[in-house]
Amino acid sequence: MAKKKTPSEGSKKVNNPNVMGLHAAVVEQPITDTLEQNYMPYAMSVIVSRAIPEIDGFKPSHRKLLYTMYKMGLLTGARTKSANIVGQTMRLNPHGDAAIYDTLVRLSKGYGALLHPFVDSKGNFGKVYSRDMVWAASRYTEAKLSPICQELFRDIDQDTVDFVDNYDNSMKEPALLPTTFPNILVSANQGIAVGMASQLCGFNLGEVCDATEAYLKNPQCDLGAILLAPDFPTGGEVICDGAALEEIYRTGRGTIRIRGRYRYVKEENVIEIYEIPYTTTTEAILDKAAELIKAGKLKEVSDMRDETDLGGLKIAIDLKRGADPEKVMAKLYRSTSLQDAMGCNFNVLVAGTPRVMGVRELLEEWCAWRTESVRRRVYFTLNKKKDKLHLLKGLKRILLDIDKAIAIIRETEEESEVVPNLMIGFGIDAVQAEYVAEIKLRNINKEYILKRVREEEALRAEIEDLEDLVGSQKRIRQVIIGELREVKKKYAQPRRTAIVYGHELPEEEEADEAPDYPVHVFLSREGYFKKITPQSLRMADTQKYKENDGPSQSFETTNRAEVMFFTDRQQVYKCRLSDFDDTKASALGDYLPTRLGMDGEESVVGMVLPGDYGGWLLFVFANGKAARVELKSYATTSNRRRLTGAYSDKSPLAALLYLTEEREVVLTSTERRSLVVNTALLSPKTTRGTQGVQVMALKPKYQVAEACFLEDSPITNLGRYRCRSLPAAGALLKEEDGGQLRLL
């Protein structure tokens, strides 16, 4: 008999350090404390230090990369390997070489994501309009800073911005870059933080400079008359909506519609798309167009290909003879991302706080920040000149009696006493005395003295002017305006994105309606589907099927009706009958698994014409359960062709019946028992995946073989098989009732 443990033995400490660590890790903590101590610091770090741009138009990753390149001398020097730039940037950005190179790519001229790229690149940097065109590794590409970066770093060494320590306090980096133009409105930028995001579209540099100048002169100016619309590096056309633009300019939120541009080559009967929306890629457009062609909704197109080369983007679309190119393009605009919407969310960090601002607010913040930068630069220059004037004052006092100065220096025994003796002899301070002591002997001449005197007079005038500039808001505005005009003159480019006003576009035609006429539809047991007109059916009504195949369902309906095909994988495929070609009774028809792109070994188990989605679907399962599901549960607002989870997967499906009213249904099991059930006993459900309720009580080795409506069965002795409550076992079939039933 085992010895019973004492309480002390039962709670004996475990000496295994791994087990001890495991128990020590389990510490209870209120969820509010976890959010405050662990989650909030992470969220704030992502918002402030990673994802949201600041008033200079850059995220920290952009700023660290560009400043590193500036310190490497790449503003005026030759290009260097991108791998070298990435390695140097690791001193400021420790998040890995892949992230740094991705940032470099996005800022490059080769990638083409910006109206004014900041990186002059050489090599394969991919393309913003291509999903599959991947950029080369950093060891194969080269880069330097673009000329416009002079405007990012102008006077950065004159105390225009604050400098902060890098992550290991080994060097300093700028908190912001002193951009001389509102880059926040010129360079497109987007970021996803925690609980918030930012989406900034770019505007034309010339328009932004003009709008900023107008704002500086009159903060209440009409920005919409100057800043016409966003401008995108991929070109295309902005469909201008005055109200939508006004909303974006006012609130910083809204949507802009963009579409691609094309030309029609009549001689070759080809449409060439050469500009696409900034928000999409050529592959996305081609994939969607191919889907439309496969579905028979773009029958005018005979071929389509991507002919993008060194000359630029080009998607070629070959048209069939007689096709109208404008109608084809209208379909593409309507059904693909060739016409797309871009959401704007001008969320910007200002003094460490994220704020969603309209264009006017952004200009207000930028002008205030730039004013402070210019004032700091003027203060820096002013102090330098005051220091120089202070030195010249000391020099002037020495030069009045140069012989005395020489005598003091010659009579001083120790070098360290020269400066103190000069200070005592002439009544000057240490800085002035040090400056005088360092003057070369050759400069002690009349010409040198006269130059220094004249320089002092000029310095006094400059200092007076700078002091006036520092105290004059109007003059500082003029300095900013002058810099803006200089930037516009050097770097402004014509708009790449054309502006099209909504009222100038032709009215969008309704989607081509398929002709409506009566049809008969047939579904075979093996999944072959046929749509036959009444005229064709009258000419030959003998249906052709494959060997061992036969009819499963047939309906009379119209060509525009919607049809749903349920499969044995709990999926339903929705389409229009007009998507199928008319055929003849002598043809096999469309093989649905192939036509609808079903999964491997997936097969059709039933067809339903939903109409207005009234009524119910009755699913009868092999385990004896039945589920009555409202048909409206399958209605969708989008054009989804496939719905998963169409019904429960807990048991194989024995039958699928469509109900428009209460009906009596016959369930037959493999034991050759039948049960007549009124559907009123089954409560409707809105959940498609419901398992239903037990209807037929089955012995372990048996299951439901089939189910049908009472009028479709050969049963005549109804009272024998009816039930009053569920579940019920049913009754064994008599010969006169079950002779024609097909059992599994």
Please, could you describe this protein's structure?
There is one protein chain. The protein is an alpha+beta fold and 744 residues long. It has 4 domains: 58-178, Topoisomerase II, domain 5 (Alpha-Beta Complex); 261-337, Gyrase A, domain 2 (2-Layer Sandwich); 371-491, Orthogonal Bundle (Topoisomerase, domain 3), CATH 1.10.268; 518-738, Neuraminidase, CATH 2.120.10. Helices cover 33% and strands 21% of the residues. The strands form 10 sheets. Strands 14-9-8-17 form a 4-stranded mixed sheet. A 4-stranded antiparallel sheet has the order 10-11-13-12, with helices on one face. It has a 4-stranded antiparallel sheet with strand order 20-18-19-23. Strand 6 and strand 7 (197-200) form a beta hairpin. Helix 4 (60-71) crosses helix 5. The relative contact order is 0.06.
